[in-house]
Amino acid sequence: MSTEPTLNDRVQEESKIFKVIENCREVVQKNSFALKQSSREPISNAALENIARDMAYVLLDLKKGIKLIKSNKTINSNTNVLEEIENTYKQQEMAKSKMDVEQQNAKKQTNNNNNKNNKQTNQNKQPVANKNNKAQPRIEPGNSQRNRSKSLDSKFSGNNKVVATNVTNMTFPQEKSSTSRNTQPKNNSNDNRPHSSPQPSLKKRSASIPPSREIYNPLGIIKDEVARAIRDRKTFTIKGFFPAVRRALLKRGWIERFHPSLKEINNNKIKEFYHMNLTELVGLLKNKEISETVKKLIKSKLLSNNQVDLYWDNTYDVFKDCPDNKKLTLINQFRREAASYTSKQGLCQAARDAHWLQIPGVAKINHPRCYLLCKGGDTKYFVKDFGLTAAMSLLKWIVKNNVTGECKIASSTGKIPMSYFDFALTECYKYVKREKHQDIDEDIREALENEWHEFLKQFYKAVHVGNHFKLPDDELNAAEVVKTMVRKTTYVLNEIRDHMPCFDMDGYMNIWILKPTNSSRGEGIHICRTLEYILEVVRKNPNRRYIIQKYIERPFLIHDTKFDIRQWFLVSNSSPLTIWMYKLCYLRFSSQTYNLNNLHESIHLTNNSVQTKYHKKTGRDPLIPAYCMWDSKEFKNYLSNIGYPDIYENVIYPGMKECITAAMIAHRDKIDKRKNCFELYGADFMLTESFQPWLLEINSNPALHASTPLMSRMCPDVLEDVIKVVVDNARNNRADTGNFELVYKDKLEYQKVNAKAQFEVTGSPLTEDFCDVAAKTSSHSERNSFKQLDPSKALLHTGENMKNALKNLLKIIKYEKHKRRTTCKEQSIEVRSMADINISTQTNSEIQSLYQITLAEESSEYSVIIPDLRKNT
C-alpha cells in the first residue's frame, strides 16, 4: 500500500516545479526574437509568467498521473474512478464560484472608494485593490487546467484550500533580460502599474494557449521563388559548359533545372548532394559554405517535372526533351536539312544560284567556285574547270615572268613545245566566245581528254618546276617571239576578266583545296596542285563526300602572314527571317609566313585547332601575337597605319553583311519555321588584295570557349549579348541588344510551298457542237455578189500559187548555202591566223586587233593581275 506524501515531499515537488518554471522562462526568452518579428502587440512579463505557469501545471499533472499509476493502491472498479473524477470537477466548480464572488466584491469595494475619495486617494488605494486581485486571480477559460491540478494536489495534502492558496500565491522574480525590457509597453503613464497586471489586449487571450509565431521555413521560401519563376517563364536548362549563359540568366532572376551531364555535378561534393532528396537537402541549408549550392539543387529538383522555358544545347536531343505539345520552349537551334547553309555542300550549291537572289546593297554572295566530288556529283565539271584554270594560269605565268624576269619564257633550250602555248591560248579564247554566247550560231569544238592530259603535264613543268618554252627551229629572235606571246596573252586575259569575278584572286599556280563535307577543326583537308592527286584521294575514300574549292592564291596579307576573319551572326527568327550581325570580329593568323611553294597546313590553314600545334615553331613574324589572334580594333588600327582608315567600315564590314544575308536568303526554305528558335553562327571570310571579303563557310556551334586570352574576353560578351537579343529584346523591343545589329528582316512571313499538296482542277463539260465551225452569216446581197469561178480556172490559180511558194523556198535554200560557205571560210582563216605567227598572213580582223596594242600599254592594263613584285627584284 502507498503512503501519503510528507511535507518534505511536497517541498521537493515545489522546488522541482520552480525549476521547471525557470527552464520554461529560459525557453521563452530564447524565442523572444521570433516574437519581436511578428506583427502582434508586445507580450508583458505577466503573460509570459502565465504561459510558464500553465506549462508547469501540465508537467505536474503528468508527473502526478504517472505516480498514481505506479502506486500500489488498487482501484476496485470503474465506478470508483468515475466517482473520483466527478468529485474532482465538483471541487473545481466550487472553487471557481467562490473566486467569482470574491472578485465581484472586490470590484464593488473599489468602485465605492473611487466615488468617495479624490484622485490622490484613488491613486494611493489602487495598489491595494490590485493586491487583492492578485490574491484572487480571475477565472478565465484557460484556468480549468489549473483547477484540475489543484484537485490532484488534494490527494496528497488532504487540504485543498491550503494547497490552492499556496499555488496561487506563487511569485516569480522579475526578469532582467532584454526580452522583458523589449516587451514592456511604451506608454510612460503606465510605468507605475504593478508588474503582474495583464494588458487589456491580452485579457481576451487564453493564458494556457501560447501566441502564434512566424516560423522560418526555408523550403517554403524556395518553393515561392520557383513558383514565381514558372509563372514569369524564367526557367532554363543548359546542356554543356556555358557559364556565361548561366550567369546572364541567373542575373535576370531565372532558375536553372540542372541537366545530369552538367560538368559541375561530376565533382565529388556536388555529385553527393545531387542524389539527395529534398528532406536531406533542407537539412544542409544550415551549412553556410554549401548553402547556395544546396539551394540551387533544391530549386532544380522542384523543377524536375516542369518543362523549362529556355533550353541551351548543341544537339538535336533538345527537341525530344522539350516537346511542343506541352510548351513552346525557347531553343538555341534550328532544325534544318543536312545540305543546308552550315554544310560545305549546301553553301556550294547556294553559290551557284546566288545571282537569282541578289538584292543590290543588301544581299550578294562572294564564294570561291567549288564542286561536289562523289558518286553522282560534279566531278566531270570540275575536271573541265581544272583544265581551263590551268590554261589561264599558264597565260598569267607568262605575263608575270615578263614583268619580273624570274624565269625565262622561251628559248632555244626550252623543253616545252610552243604548241602547248597555242593550245592554252585557243582554249581561253573559246571560253570567252562561250561567255558571249557566240556558240549559238557556230559550233565550238571541245578539246579531247588526252589533249588536256598532255597539256597538264607541260603546265606542271612550266609553272611548278620552272621550265620554259622551246623556240621553233626557224625562229632565232627570242625577244620577238616573247613579245608576240605577251601581246596575245594580255588580250585574251583582259577579255576573260570581264566574265570571271574570281579572276584576280586565282593566281597562276592553280591550287585547289579539298575538304570533307562533314568535317570540322581542319580535319581531312588537303591542299592540292595536281588533278591526279585530287582524284586519287577521292577514290581511296569512297564513303566520304568531298568538295573541291578553288584556293585563294592572292589573299590580303598582314606582315606576310595569311589570316581569316571569324564573324558572328545571330538568326533570332526564321519566319520572318531575322538576321543580327555582331559588330566585333576577330582575326586568326597562321603560324608561318605565306608561301605557295610550301603547302603545309601551318601556312595555309588558319583554324585555331590546327595552329595550336605550331605556336612554338619559329618563322612567325614577331608582330603577330603568340596565340595568333587579333580583334577587330587591332585590325582597324593596322589598316589605318597602312593608309586605309575607312576601308573596314566602307568595304569589308558591308561586304560581309551582304554575303551572310545572301547565304541565308538562299536557304530560308530549308530552315524549320518553328517559333521560339534562335541560333548563333560563325562565318569565315578571306580578304583579297582589293579588300573584298569572300565567304568560305558558315559554322554552326562555333567555338566559344576561352582557348586564348582574346577568346576569354570576347566569348562571354557575345553570349551575354545573345541573351539580350533573344530574351530582353524579345520581351521589350526597346531593350538594349549589345553589339548586335539588325541587318535584315523579311517584311512578310515566308511560307514554304508544300510539295505534297493535292491540287484540284474544276470546270464544266463542253457541249457536243463546241468544236463545230459556225457558218458565216451574211446578207442575201453579199452572197449574190460573190463570183462563181470555173473549176478549171480555180485549178490554174492554185498551180500558180504553188509555183510562187517553190520559188521562195529555192531562194531560202540558196541563201543558207551561201551563208554556210562564208562561215566556213572565216573559220579556216581564223585557224590559220592563230597557227601562223607572221602578221602578214592573218586576214581575220578580230585577230589583227591583237597587234595594234603596244607592249607598254598591255603591261599597264595587266597591272592589276600581277602583284607588286618589284620589291623582290
Automatic annotation (TrEMBL):
Pfam family, one: TTL
Bias kind Low complexity: ranges: 103-126
Polar residues bias: start-end ranges: 154-200
One GO location term (cellular component): microtubule cytoskeleton
Biological process annotations from GO: cilium assembly; cilium movement
Annotated localization: Cytoplasm
Any GO MF annotation of the entry: protein-glycine ligase activity, initiating
Predominant subcellular localization, coarse grouping: cytoplasm
PROSITE patterns: TTL
Chain intervals for the UniProt region annotation (Disordered): 93-214
Keywords recorded for this protein, A-Z: ATP-binding, Cytoplasm, Ligase, Nucleotide-binding
Protein's UniProt name: Tubulin glycylase 3A-like
